[in-house]
Write a structure and sequence with these properties.
five-stranded antiparallel β-sheet, 42% helix
């Protein structure tokens, strides 16, 4: 349309055929208007396409790292994430909460690196967890399922990045990648079992803010095979009104301009002063403090997951359950 206006003016308008200064000014104004119209039209088309691409990307990312329900099995949930890649909501951090017949099972993990390159690894771990959490009766079996899923993913990635000329698949992945994984199981009585491969321990909010447990985790998944014995730790109980805060190291490793690390425990203590602790509000407060501390997006992906026990009472633990917990400890 804009091209037709320009051509019609040039060929049909007598003013366009004149060579005096006034005619030139009018012709310049007409062609400037035509050019402006073209630029605005192209800009509008690009903006519409960009909005559509963002909607598709947002839908895909929410399928991968889907929003958690506000409650499951008497636990109030909230999760948040900050991606180090501008415009992305999913990076190298992963989490999921699933109610199973074995209890509420939780995974929190962190893939080496961040951004789009880590999304495929996140998908492999989460896909395996969402199925295996219901199938495997014990946390060690669940962790081994995640390890096998990661191994398959890395072997496939190795073949794609370094295709062999008709030879067999490489025995070990060529991609130097690892994943820290924390598995939790919360029973109906609030009993907490944990298996940790290289991930930061959660904080327990129970009047004061303290680490859930003081213990050295196992090495992350990827560089080395899991040991033959996987120690499941009994971490006490999550009592009614208490909350667990799981996080990735992108939060504690965030620095300000002076190089000071973000004081996560102090930020949680301040956010937990308002009782009862609201998972959504706690996440908002912590992220606001994190951005104020750094003055910019963090250099690494930063995820938070909060679980608050809203159950009215703690059921009496059966002797068989107690014996099982002591054995695992």
């Amino acid at each position: 349309m804009w091209g037709a206006v320009a051509i019609t003016y040039k060929l049909a308008c007598p003013l366009a055929q004149q060579d005096d200064m006034g005619a030139r000014i009018v012709s310049s104004a007409v062609f400037f208007a035509v050019g402006t119209g073209l630029v605005l039209h192209v800009r509008g088309a690009l903006l519409r396409e960009l909005r559509q691409m963002r909607e598709v990307a947002g839908a895909a990312q929410n399928v991968l790292l889907r929003p958690l329900p506000p409650r499951t099995e008497g636990l109030a949930l909230a999760a948040g994430r900050l991606s180090a890649s501008y415009g992305a909501t999913v990076g190298g951090d992963l989490y999921e909460v699933t109610a199973t017949e074995h209890g509420v099972r939780v995974v929190m993990g962190d893939v080496r690196g961040h951004g789009l390159a880590a999304i495929a690894t996140v998908a492999a771990i989460l896909g395996s967890f969402r199925e295996a959490a219901h199938d495997e009766p014990e946390l060690p079996l669940l962790m081994r399922r995640l390890e096998r899923a990661l191994g398959r993913h890395l072997r496939e990635r190795s073949r794609a990045e370094h295709p062999a000329s008709g030879g067999p698949a490489p025995e070990s992945p060529l991609a130097e990648e690892f994943v820290t994984v924390l598995l939790l199981e919360i029973g109906q009585d609030g009993d907490i079992l944990a298996l940790n491969c290289g991930h930061p321990w959660p904080f327990l909010l129970s009047g004061q803010v303290r680490p859930l447990i003081e213990a050295d985790p196992l090495p992350p998944l990827g560089p080395f095979p899991l040991p033959a014995e996987l120690p499941v730790l009994h971490c006490g109980r999550l009592l009614p009104g208490e909350a667990l805060v799981l996080h990735t190291d992108g939060i504690e490793d965030a620095r300000d301009a002076a190089g000071e690390f973000f004081p996560l425990q102090a930020a949680l203590t301040e956010a937990a002063r308002v009782q009862p602790v609201s998972p959504q509000n706690l996440i908002r407060v912590v992220y606001a403090e994190l951005l104020r501390h750094t003055g910019r997006l963090p250099a690494d992906d930063a995820a938070l997951l909060v679980l608050r026990n809203d159950r009215k009472r703690v059921p009496v633990q059966h002797p068989e359950t107690e014996r099982r917990a002591r054995t695992m400890s």
